[in-house]
Write a structure and sequence with these properties.
The complex is a heterotetramer of chains A (303), B (282), C (462) and D (150). Chain A has 303 residues and is of the alpha/beta class. Chain A is built from ten helices and 13 strands. The two termini of chain A are 33 Å apart. Chain C has a 23-stranded parallel β-sheet that branches. In chain C, strands 1-4-7-10-13-16-19-21-23-26-29-32-35 form a 13-stranded parallel β-sheet, with no helix packed on it. In chain C, 53% of the residues are buried. Helix content of chain D is 23%, strand content 17%. Chain D has four helices and seven strands; from the N terminus they run H-E-E-H-E-E-E-E-H-E-H. Chain D is globular and about 40 Å long. Classes of the chains: A alpha/beta (303), B mainly alpha (282), C mainly beta (462), D alpha+beta (150). At the B-C interface, helix 1, helix 3, helix 5, helix 6 and helix 7 of B face helix 4 and helix 5 of C.
């Protein structure tokens, strides 16, 4: 559905996107992760036909076309990070304009306004909207066409609770219908549940590509267990370090980072030391941690 | 395919016209233009110190001055404001499966219609005053002034398009600044420079320079055509004769002025469309 | 042998000191076949008798060689033979009155073919109408003649080069042209080498020059209207002409001018109306002229002044609604402007003496430029021209040759100028009103339609 | 902007293209550069053309002569006079001149010009005239401009 072939984009001396090659298949939901300035938006805009690569190629749709050909954009719907609409027009007038522009049947306007919880505000000028409402209007415009490919740039960043609800409903509905979704985020937590696959960008380079299963493994491997004991037992930390070398004592807690599979052995050791467990917290690795790690690694590669 | 493009053009134009009709700036322009037109039309009769000279040509010539002063500036500013959308406004529009040049052209047409409507309002009001007191002799001249005003609107919207293309978001201020400099150059600096150059040249060369400059500069071209239409060949005294001799008569002059103005409309619009089609909406 | 003489002759003539002498040979009695049926009555008339002519059409030329009075009753029409002048006056003290004369566009310019051709003293032509004739009424060495209440219409569709004058006066000492109306000829009234004439109450319009003096000193003209020509009146190579209470109006062509002075000295212009001309007054090579109490209004340029003009005074005139007061060609002027009213002068009169406290500056850098470069007219009404003028107000050093009115009036003086022009009829243009109303409506429509309204969507349901 | 520059260059190119002086047509609205009268009859007209200068037009050959006395012509200037019969322009050094006392010319010089003796012979107005040489008319220096080799 989307194919980047060594796509490169430079702005002046800066390389925003550096030879990305990736393919996203039909029905996939793929998240593009990375810190600010890593090239996420540029990558997405290349797929939306807003930016042309300086080298390499970008193709969308089936059969595949270059998205800067207007007709190729029929397959896609793009929602920028922040939308803006003329303030003198009403929400309905804007939705109607885009509906007619794409030749979509008239009843869709009402449907998307309702979907975006704007049916009460449709007759009001956009100038009177709150920021969240404007963003919801953007969402309504983006969902007007039943596009095969949804390109969403930081979709959750500016949404209010009504918008988030609508957004999740939209994505799930489209996923169920077998549509492809490609979106960016640096607020990883919100979109974990949506993506099948994750691409991580750092300094314009693709530094990792993970399936949801691989991500789960990674996260599991980067879990943490903190055990608070009633007393200090000499030798216990050393014993634990033999199976989990990164273990450390932080105040009255022992913190053990590492794969979840180690945890039963660690607990056995604690018990055999005779200490009482006052508290125990075990969690999988946070996505941010993984992502920071990958970015750091990517940064090393670039140097 | 072509039919679809036309439909899109009409859609964009209608949207932009709706927008412009609701814009405070357009409304302000309409009110100011109508007010000043009315003032010019009414005061044309007390021009000569209470002696009540009824001179259609004078009144219409004052209207021309009003047009030359207000229309280019308004068209440029309105054009730049409309064509440099806020951040996020351009992206969602240009990601639609419509060629960007069509969207631009449609917007320009809509703006043109709205501004011309505002001007028509002014001319209508002025015309009611004028034609209640003078005969229909000046009708053609008056129509010519109104047409010149519309042409000038098109020219400066085209220039606005060229200045604005790609200057969305925070670059809007820059585009506005460029527009103002362009206006200042065409309305004033150009003629001053030409006059200065002409004063240093031999009479024949100076004449040809002045005449060419009057044909090349769109504001001068519209002024020349309008005043010739209103006042006839007496408009610029012997200057008219030099102009007509250079252009090979009234037909040639009309043709050259029309050519110059068409180029001013077509070339910037076309260039803006081409540049917009190729540029990155970063 | 002839050459030096000839050459000197031109040069002298160029200085305006010499009258032109030679003219064409005089037309004599036409051949019998061309003569009018009235000719036998003239031939039979005793000197001093009255010939009464009844209404009707008389075709043929009429040759009057004795002092008679020819009186038309019921406007008899004299149609010329088409090969020369229609009525030829060749005896002194002839009176012709009450006729319509048609020249049938006949004859030619070189032979002075006229409606009435007079080559004898003291003729009186009264209440005649001449049309389709190269010249209307021609006074040739006709001292003491008078033309009054006649109407001349030229030959329609001819170029000015092919037309003659309406009233043509040549080498005539003392003449009166009174209350005539002249339309569509080359020059309305042309006076050459003819002193001591009076031109009063005539109207000349839609022609080249309304009134044209050449080498004619000591003349007077007053209460005339010269309208819609290339020039209202041109005074050339003449001295001591006095004129008052005339109107020079609506002369609006390329190089049109209300009043043109070329090498004329000692002229007095008083209480005239010079309005709505491309250029009001044009002065070149003229000296010791005075303009008093005239109203110069609504011109593109009020005065065009060549530096060959000297010792000329403008006092007590009113300059109103002119786009530019003065255009000076050349490098200097000693023309004096004093006590005039200038509508463009906004300088206040704080001491209440009826004069602005500051002198009024007539010249500007731009006007100086256009004075020496005609094509600069093309940008005379541009923002640039205004800007140059404004810059100069701030920096007077920019004006190379300052010309000022030292004591400008702060209020327009009450002038004894003709006033007919002020009461131009109010006309209505229904088509214009209708078109304007439509324009207003069309212009207002988008704004009315742009007001927010409920959009009813078809098939809009949950 | 770039287009404006191109146009200005094109305009200056127009300015610089001036070869040998060519006569310009006279209109009714031209005023004589000497006597200020309208040039109403092109058959008596004359003009002075110099490279880079506005043409000076005269209603009478006498006016050209008089003006040349007051304002000598620049070196490259060429004078043209009208053929009285046809109204066509002739370079003044190539024309033949006739003084016709009976013919009134606009400023009374009574001088007319023709392209050739044949043209003069065909002109009824010239029959009673006296032939003049160009030095008779223009003085010993002759008219401005070189003969075009007839």
């Amino acid at each position: 559905m989307i194919e980047y072939r060594a796509a490169v984009k430079r702005f002046g001396v800066q390389t925003a996107v550096d030879a990305i090659t990736v393919s996203i298949g039909r029905g996939e939901a793929v998240a593009l992760l990375g810190p600010n300035g890593s090239g996420k938006t540029t990558t997405l805009k290349m797929a939306a036909g807003l930016i042309r690569p300086d080298a390499g190629d970008v193709l969308v749709g089936e059969p595949a076309f270059r998205p800067w050909e207007p007709s190729a954009r029929r397959v896609l719907s793009y929602l920028p990070q922040r939308v803006a609409f003329p303030e003198a027009l009403t929400g309905r007038e804007i939705v109607e304009f885009y509906r007619r522009l794409r030749g979509i049947p008239a009843e869709r306007s009402q449907a998307v306004l309702k979907f975006a919880s704007l049916n009460g505000a449709g007759e009001r000028a956009v100038g009177t909207y709150s920021g969240g409402m404007v963003q919801r209007l953007g969402l309504a415009v983006a969902m007007l066409p039943e596009a095969d490919l949804l390109l969403l740039d930081e979709p959750t960043a500016a949404l209010d609770p009504d918008g988030l609800r609508a957004f999740y409903a939209l994505v799930e509905q489209r996923q169920a219908a077998g549509r492809t979704i490609f979106f960016t985020s640096h607020q990883v937590g919100d979109v974990e549940r949506l993506a099948d696959r994750f691409l991580v960008l750092a300094n314009g380079r693709l530094v990792a590509e993970l399936s949801q299963a691989a991500l789960r493994d990674c996260l599991a491997a980067r879990g943490t267990m903190r055990v608070r004991l009633d007393r200090d037992t000499p030798g216990l930390l050393e014993a634990i370090r033999r199976i989990a070398p990164s273990a450390s004592r932080v105040g009255d807690e022992i913190v053990i980072a590492g794969a979840a599979s180690l945890r039963p052995q660690v607990l056995d050791l604690v018990r055999s030391s005779g200490a009482q467990i006052r508290g125990l917290v075990a969690e999988d690795g946070r996505l941010e941690a993984l992502y920071r790690e990958l970015v750091a690694r990517g940064a090393e590669h670039t140097e | 395919m072509a039919g679809e493009s036309v439909r899109t053009l009409i859609l964009c134009a209608r949207q932009e016209m709706l927008l412009a009709a609701r814009s405070r700036w357009t409304q302000l322009f309409a009110v100011v233009f109508a007010g000043l037109s009315l003032a010019v039309a009414s005061s044309g009769y007390i021009l000569s110190g209470g002696s009540g000279l009824q001179d259609f040509a004078r009144t219409a010539a004052s209207l021309v001055q009003l047009v030359l002063l207000l229309v280019p500036l308004t068209s440029l500013v309105m054009g730049v404001l409309a064509l440099t959308p806020e951040r996020g406004g351009a992206e969602i529009l240009y990601a639609q499966p419509i060629a960007r040049p069509i969207l631009l052209l449609g917007t320009l047409i809509g703006l043109f219609e709205a501004l011309v409507a505002a001007e028509a309002l002014g001319f209508g009001v002025a015309g009611l005053v004028i034609f209640a007191r003078t005969g229909s002799d000046g009708l053609a001249g008056f129509a010519m002034v109104a047409a010149g005003s519309a042409v000038l609107t098109a020219v400066f919207l085209a220039i606005a398009a060229l200045v604005s293309v790609g200057q969305h978001g925070r670059k809007r201020v820059r585009a506005l600044a460029i527009a103002l400099v362009t206006w200042f150059a065409l309305a004033l600096l150009f003629d001053v420079a030409v006059l200065a150059a002409a004063s240093l040249l031999r009479s024949g060369h100076a004449s040809r320079l002045l005449i060419s400059s009057v044909l090349v500069n769109p504001i001068d071209a519209v002024r020349t055509a309008s005043l010739l239409a209103i006042e006839g060949t007496g408009a610029f005294g012997a200057g008219s004769l030099a102009l007509l001799r250079f252009t090979g008569g009234p037909g040639g002059a009309a043709l050259l002025i029309a050519l110059s103005l068409s180029l001013w409309i077509v070339v910037p619009t076309w260039t803006a469309m081409r540049r917009l089609a190729r540029m990155d909406i970063a | 042998m002839l050459a030096p003489v000839l050459f000197a002759l031109f040069v002298a003539q160029g200085q305006g000191d010499m009258a032109v002498s030679a003219s064409t040979t005089l037309e004599q009695r036409p051949a019998a076949a061309r003569l009018s049926p009235l000719q036998p009555r003239v031939d039979a008339a005793a000197p001093g008798s009255v010939i009464d002519v009844a209404a009707g059409t008389y075709t043929g030329d009429l040759y009057i060689d004795r002092p008679v009075r020819l009186v038309g009753h019921g406007r008899p029409l004299l149609v010329g033979s088409g090969s020369g002048s229609v009525v030829l006056v060749r005896a002194a003290d002839v009176v012709v009155e009450g006729f319509d004369i048609d020249g049938r566009a006949g004859g030619d310019l070189g032979r002075d073919s006229s409606g009435i051709h007079i080559a004898a003293p003291r003729a009186i032509i009264r209440d005649c109408r001449v049309r389709n004739s190269i010249f209307g009424i021609y006074l040739r060495e006709a001292n003491g003649s008078r033309v009054e209440r006649c109407r001349i219409d030229g030959i329609p569709g001819k170029s000015p080069g092919e037309k003659g004058s309406g009233l043509h006066v040549w080498n005539t000492d003392g003449f009166e042209l009174l209350h005539n109306e002249i339309v569509d000829v080359r020059d309305g009234i042309y006076i050459q080498s003819s002193p001591h004439g009076v031109v009063r109450g005539n109207v000349a319009r839609d022609l080249r020059y309304g009134l044209h003096y050449m080498y004619s000193d000591d003349n007077t003209f007053e209460d005339n209207v010269f309208e819609n020509g290339a020039a209202g009146t041109t005074l050339m190579y003449s001295r001591r002409i006095t004129f008052r209470h005339n109107q020079f109006i609506h002369n609006r062509g390329f190089a049109s001018v209300g009043l043109l002075f070329k090498n004329c000295d000692d002229i007095v212009a008083e209480s005239n109306l010079i309005a709505d001309n491309a250029r009001g007054i044009f002065l070149e090579g003229s000296s010791r002229n005075v303009f008093r109490g005239n109203l110069i209004a609504a011109s593109d340029i009020a005065i065009v002044l060549y530096d060959s003009t000297s010792d000329t005074r403008f006092t007590g005139n009113s300059f109103v609604g002119n786009l530019t007061p003065l255009s000076l060609s050349g490098r200097r002027t000693d023309t004096i402007f004093a006590d005039n009213y200038w509508s463009g002068n906004e300088s206040p009169d704080l001491d209440g003496d009826g004069r602005s406290d500051q002198p009024y500056r007539l010249s500007s850098l731009f006007d100086h430029l256009r004075g020496n470069l005609t094509a600069a007219d093309l940008v005379s009404r541009s923002l640039a021209a205004s800007a140059v003028a404004a810059a100069e107000q701030a920096l007077p050093v920019l004006d190379p040759i300052p010309v000022v009115d030292a004591s400008p009036r702060s209020h327009p003086p009450v002038l004894d100028v003709p006033t007919e022009w002020r009461n131009a009829e109010v006309r209505r243009a229904p088509i214009g009103l209708l078109a304007s109303a439509a324009l207003t409506l069309v212009g207002a429509l988008p704004f009315a339609a742009g007001r927010r309204r409920r959009v009813v969507l078809s098939g809009a349901h949950a | 902007m770039r287009r404006a520059v191109v146009l200005v260059i094109a305009a200056s190119a127009l300015l610089s293209c001036s070869g040998a002086p060519k006569p310009v047509a006279v209109s009714d609205s031209d005023a004589c550069a000497f006597c200020r009268m309208a040039v109403s009859d092109k058959h008596f007209a004359a003009e002075l053309v110099a490279p880079g200068e506005e043409p000076r037009i005269y209603d009478d050959i006498g006016c050209l002569v008089s003006d040349l006395v007051q304002h000598p012509a620049p070196g490259e200037a060429v004078a043209f006079v009208a053929d009285h019969r046809t109204g066509d322009w002739i370079a003044a050094p190539d024309a033949i001149y006739t003084r016709v006392p009976e013919l009134s010319t606009p400023m009374g010089s009574h001088i007319i010009a023709h392209m050739s003796p044949a043209s003069r012979d065909a002109d009824a107005a010239a029959r009673s005239g006296v032939p003049l040489s160009s030095t008779d008319v223009f003085g010993p220096a002759g008219p401005p401009g070189a003969s075009r080799g007839r």
